Amino acid sequence: MTLRPAEAGPAAGTAEPPAAPPARRRARRPRRRKSSRARSQAWAGYLFLAPWFIGLFAITLGPMIATLYLSFNDYSMLTPPHWIGLDNYHRMFTADDRFIHSLRVTTVYVAVSVPLQLAFALGLAMALDKGLRGLPIYRSVFYLPSLLGGSVAIAILWRKIFGTDGIVNTFLGWFGYHGEGWVTSPDTALWTLIILHVWTFGAPMVIFLAGLRQIPRELYEAARVDGAGRWRQFRSITLPLLTPIIFFNAVLELIKSFQSFTQAFVVSGGNGGPVDSTLFYTLYLYIKGFKNYEMGYAAAMAWVLLLIIGALTAVNFLMSRFWVFYGDEK
Amino acid sequence: MPVLFRPASRLTKHVLLIVFGLFMLYPLLWMVSSSIKPEGLIFREPGLVPHDVTGANYSGGWHALKHSFGYYLWNSAVITVLAVVGNLVACSLAAYAFARLEFPLKKLWFTVMLLSIMLPHHVTVVPQYIMFSKIGWINTIWPIVVPKFLATDAFFIFLMVQFIRTLPRELDEAAAIDGAGHWRTFVQVILPLCVPALATTAIFTFIWTWNDFFTQNLYLTNSDNLTAPVALRQFLDASSDSSWGPMFAMSIISLGPIFGFFLAGQKYLVRGMATTGFK
């Protein structure tokens, strides 16, 4: 089938219907052929997507709606769901101190660890840019922790490093400090998890590195000719041109860190201790749903989590208008 | 003057980076060194070079639980390999449809797919658990593996869509002229060119599934079904403060495959991160 360039466009591109041609007779044949092709493509499209559709409805959308339904019920898997309206939500915000506490813990964790992690990621990405010798080795070394950070093994290690007789205290002991364990003290346990999160700055760093490479060298050369110093170059070129990537990383890490679970679970021994100081939101949800079998309550918590993450992302997007710079704007 | 200073400042930079890199890796190196130190010496020696080397922690840890640790590693391996296959098949099929085919409501479904990347797992996990327990799948690998064959890790669909979009359309058209249908175009033309994206998917799926604790801890509770991370956690619960050596030894063994994949697939990891990161 030979196509003239004018026809090749829509056939290969989007499904927009071709504009009604003035000469009907000439247009009829290609149009019919195209529509049968379009129909076969539609079939093929849905066939190729069949596994995804099943997953979408059975594993994702269906359960999501079921969660919403369950959140208005009292349900323990043993007896049928019992409709209680908004009681779960009401109880959460008025009668459950642990819930409020878990929100507070998670907020501190996210608000401290994400900016710190991104600052490290950006700083190291800047240090590694500009054709540094041995860059692949450095990049690997800094990237490795972000692959391991989510594992149980590292959480166990952390518990030992920051334990009462862990190496951190051994170190501090040389300087005359003899304190209790960092993971066993309610004042510091959360901070060990924050340090663990910052330790995994390698993933956003790699994304920053790719972003830095997109910035045209000529801009820096021109700036240097104009006498701009390093700081000025960073403020006026690097930072503005990198804002879309900072934004992307911020959204991604925010969503991810809000759902942190494994580290808190392992480091605290599964209960969010000591004294609930590491009771992450998702950990509390897990305890409610799968330890106490208050599944309706856990479902309500899940929807509140979705709303929080949705709202944070929306706020992020709205604020991005004021600080994110996309190159095509004038 | 600047010419004179440059090598020195570059050297300073390298020194700083190396010191910082060692600082970052110190916990890992310390764990490795502790795992071969005799019990009792571990915490008196924050140094990395062990004076006394022993394999006792490894042999002790290997047999510390109900089954040998190799049993749990095998359980992890089965789940992980199936998850990788599932993601490769299902996500590439969906990606081909989104990148190359035209069908009604495509924009809507594509948006739904993108949104599902952001969806927290916790929003679906309660009904999923109820559903899987109703059909008798608790303590089987199916709740972990089957969703992968249904392309629920939409992140990888997106990754592959981005990749396929960079392939020239002329290839598809040439295949069509040769009489190839969509299936043959997909299998014989697009897939072979997607190897980098497939490799990235395989490596990330491997690492994430191998590390995954939440799902495996939820669905695999029978002591015969535990995977390596869940077994490690039970080890931690069961042992007193004195058996850190064996636990470190098993931790290192459980991290081994991740480290191996990391070394083998660095190129794809970095590229995958970088190309999906934005654009």
Automatic annotation (TrEMBL), chain A:
Segments for region (Disordered): 1-36
Q: Which InterPro entries match?
A: ABC_transporter_permease, MetI-like, MetI-like_sf
GO biological process per UniProt: transmembrane transport
Q: Which GO terms describe its cellular component?
A: plasma membrane
Q: What is its main location?
A: membrane
Q: Where is the composition biased (Low complexity)?
A: 1-17
User: Keyword tRNA-binding: yes or no?
Assistant: no
Q: In which residue ranges is the amino acid composition biased (Basic residues)?
A: 23-36
Cellular compartment(s): Cell membrane
Recite the UniProt keywords alphabetically: Cell membrane, Membrane, Transmembrane, Transmembrane helix, Transport
**Does the entry feature the keyword Cytoplasm, yes or no?**
no
Q: Pfam families recorded for this chain?
A: BPD_transp_1 (PF00528)
Which residue windows are transmembrane per the record? 43-72, 108-128, 140-158, 189-212, 233-252, 264-287, 299-324
Q: Which residues form the ABC transmembrane type-1 domain?
A: 103-316
How does this protein sit in the membrane? Answer: Multi-pass membrane protein
Assigned protein family: Belongs to the binding-protein-dependent transport system permease family.
Protein name from the UniProt record: Sugar ABC transporter permease
Q: Which organism is it from?
A: Actinomadura montaniterrae
What lineage, starting at the top, does this entry show?
Bacteria, Bacillati, Actinomycetota, Actinomycetes, Streptosporangiales
